[in-house]
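CORE FACILITY INTAKE
Project code: CF-77B
Contact: R.S. (postdoc)
Sample description: multi-component assembly, two entities in total
Requested service: structural model of the whole complex
Turnaround: standard
Below are the sequence entries exactly as provided by the requester. Do not edit them.
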Amino acid sequence: MLRTHTCGELRLSDVGKSVTLCGWVSKVRDKGGMVWVDLRDRYGISQLMAEEGKAAPEILNTLRSLGREYVVCAQGEVIERYAKNDKMPTGEVEIKLGKVEILNPAKLPPFLIEDDTDGGDDLRMQYRYLDLRRNPVRAKLELRHKVAQAVRRYLDAQGFLEVETPVLIKSTPEGARDFVVPSRMHAGEFYALPQSPQTFKQLLMVGGFDRYFQIVKCFRDEDLRADRQPEFTQIDCEMAFVEREDILSMFEGMFRSLFTEVKGIDIGEIVRMSYDDAMRLYGNDKPDTRFGMQLAHLKGYGNDLTSGANFVVFDSAEAVIGLPVTGAGDYTRKQIDALTEWVKRPQIGMKGMVWMRFEADGSLKSSVDKFYDQAALKKWATLAGLQPGDLLLVLAGDQGQTLKAASELRLELGNQLGLRNPNEYKALWVLDFPLLERDEENGRWMAMHHPFTAPRPEDLHKLGTDPGAIKANAYDMVLNGNEIGGGSIRIHDRQLQAKMFEVLGFTAAEAEEKFGFLLNAFEYGAPPHGGLAFGFDRLCALFGGSESIRDFIAFPKNNAGRDVMIDAPGPIDAIQWKELHLKNA
Amino acid sequence: MLRTHTCGELRLSDVGKSVTLCGWVSKVRDKGGMVWVDLRDRYGISQLMAEEGKAAPEILNTLRSLGREYVVCAQGEVIERYAKNDKMPTGEVEIKLGKVEILNPAKLPPFLIEDDTDGGDDLRMQYRYLDLRRNPVRAKLELRHKVAQAVRRYLDAQGFLEVETPVLIKSTPEGARDFVVPSRMHAGEFYALPQSPQTFKQLLMVGGFDRYFQIVKCFRDEDLRADRQPEFTQIDCEMAFVEREDILSMFEGMFRSLFTEVKGIDIGEIVRMSYDDAMRLYGNDKPDTRFGMQLAHLKGYGNDLTSGANFVVFDSAEAVIGLPVTGAGDYTRKQIDALTEWVKRPQIGMKGMVWMRFEADGSLKSSVDKFYDQAALKKWATLAGLQPGDLLLVLAGDQGQTLKAASELRLELGNQLGLRNPNEYKALWVLDFPLLERDEENGRWMAMHHPFTAPRPEDLHKLGTDPGAIKANAYDMVLNGNEIGGGSIRIHDRQLQAKMFEVLGFTAAEAEEKFGFLLNAFEYGAPPHGGLAFGFDRLCALFGGSESIRDFIAFPKNNAGRDVMIDAPGPIDAIQWKELHLKNA
């Protein structure tokens, strides 16, 4: 080793030791008589020093020639500092230099290698190797490492086997768009990169590997929204001979243990909520349950507290939804106007917003009190659980759009009111999703999760008659308003799987061509099975108190799917084009 | 859970318990009055039984309807067996059935799901999910899981961080052929799949992540030789602020701990041997050191024990190499003739073979004793360390070809003599490889490892004058005659790296286009670093006592790069062609 210690480990108890440290120059302070250097590595910062007249002149010369980010090997004696720094773990000592060597000089970095940097996103991406030296970025990737090891330890202890599934597979028509890989040996044919190992893990179940997991890269060639990556990582799991409850409790256990091990906190109860309840109470199938403000359906879901008052806006609306805002009874007209403008933005699309205040004296004041008397408003307040000092914001319109708008407004107010603390955690399972969604454009049914999801047994009989009413035997895990994982009990019966492909509009020939291997496998003794996958990038981000995944990935791509550091994708040469039997269209 | 226990865990101490098992029907024996079923899962086999007249008739009916590989859920009482089977861990008990349910019927499998199967390779590949049910295949993948977890535990404990590097990267001209991925968003451009994360792990070192590892998929679009896979897995590692010795001892430690943890054996000393010595002693840079039979250079390497005897074959040969075969002095003429034919095969390419016997009486008998007298032959015997009762086989020709032939013959005899026991292990490090190889066809130098390998410091000065004489600061780990890992200290100096690209025939513009990001990174403070990678598939195979990697991969591809189970690669549809801006050439 070129070093005896790291830059993070020396303490008062090491005083007197002769040590050698290696690292990057973080700062040089030259006070004339004394020169100090902060030397940084992955483990911390140590202070080096040399004194004019005492240290050899070549040491002082070398120190004075150092620039930021020079790589240095420094040998010396650990001494107690005169002026201690209690903000640094090594702050009680410094190294009196006996020798110093420049291992590699460095050009001036294009941005500051400090916790708060002056580098913008683009620059940081281009020089990712420099950004990685910054503590916050390094800490995020260290956290990712810890979470991965903890996941493996838990699942290994539970008898799961980590099995690598192939990356070069076959393009299938379901789900998102595949990345494909032209075959040189088979002209005109392509491999596809997996969107998930879904069919392979099911085949492992057919193969008797009753507890499988993998932390695995997956790929989707989608137009990238902010904070999506074309390659992403999943914790992928599957179990055989289980029912839904077994999977929920197994992965609740994993989740709980991750929180204990990695963050040292008890995540508390992981409640279960039906999809229908999530939509009704939060307007959202991934509700943020760190705060209340559940929706009050003044009209809709069997209620009607608004009709008959000649208020045309509400009378003509399918749904009237109140959002109670605790303690916001003193919002000014200006604040409410701002929120009204907020819901009228095209992204939200509401035409307006009604408000009602529950005054401290018990009276109710509303923007529509010429239509609704105190008795009527009182009913609203009761339904919404409003207390004196609270505010009710009311939206009206189509059921779907109004739910969505109410959900967005709830989250926005959660942000404004500081109710969404990233270091507070609330997880829940959302259950009983609809099995199918109607694709109105193409007039056909689409699988809401994927075509291998089993219907709830009690809904099976509706497959031929009322497919839209079938609930899936599926589950999502939601953490702080983010879907971080999901899965289902799978179909393990060949006939049912074939029927499902038929409902989804595959001809028998198409189903056979694309999924014949799975349908075949189901004929040779497929066990009942189910599983789930967690989005590992997002999980790590949330563990790190962040909503953005990018810094939890060592070498992320930008929103155009480019790696700007290595400049990929890029051209290939003429020989490659020829060998792949391809030309530009 | 659909089961209370697995099929592998019930013992005499469980007698009296009511249990539920799930699994696959391995065998049904119907003796009229009694029906027995062997039920199998990943954990073992349990025997179910029902007695005519005592069990409910529907149980007997169900049992009699079972076929091989039906999936069954069986409930009953654990009882002591009348006729115990000491070959099965569960062989002292059986389950007296109270209830049995067919969870899924099965068609008759195309081959036997038993340790010895009647299925050929092609059939087993096509129905891989059935092959996975067989104990030997399952055990190999369980071993792989164990090795992976043990590797991670060791490296995690040593402060290595597992960092995921990207899969969608850029095509580079060095090494093997890349698989590429057409970009939909950037017409005419391609990502490439990594042949290894080489440059990324070096960038992680520049980024201060001084101990990195990853168990990672890599890709090479090569014409597949037997037992090569287009996608394969590496244990990829890199360290900063180290010298060669640090890396050797770190990974010797890992290797030693893997053997202790996974196989419960002490691997013994891991000797170090220079490339030159390996070539001289074994004719091979990955010698199998489980057995001796080191080569005796009768002519060459500074020796000449054959000239001046008017034996034209040896006189005209560059090299004469003797292979001592211990205890083979009694080989018959027929045996020797067969070996002679073996070396004359085109794959080996020798013109003939000379032999010499060291008789029990001390005399030497040779096929060339009309040219060489006893005194001359005695010198051969002494050089080769021959003892009475031993045989010396002698090959002659060009140095390179003869070394290779002698090495092949040595391995063949090792096989024939049973000296290559797959359950005995001998590992060594081979050091000091040549840095460069001459590509005679194109008249240029090629990197023997890769262009980032550092020369040995003492050879650096030869770069401009005698590049062929430079030894690399590189190392391979060899186990039982297989290269299972290798690496090097890397270049961390921009000028040296640029010079290396120049020696390898890259123009400055090409180097900049392909590796500009790395050369740039080296300007911002690259630490001294080095690392290595182990071939994980091969390592697992050798741990499992096998030379073939295929069964250590859950879903391997065949020699044409096809996954015959899912039938990949395959066609893509017209929309995909269009979106990717491609057409068939």
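Facility notes:
- The first helix of chain B runs from residue 57 to 65.
- Chain B has three domains: 12-104, 139-272+428-552, 291-420.
Invoice: internal transfer
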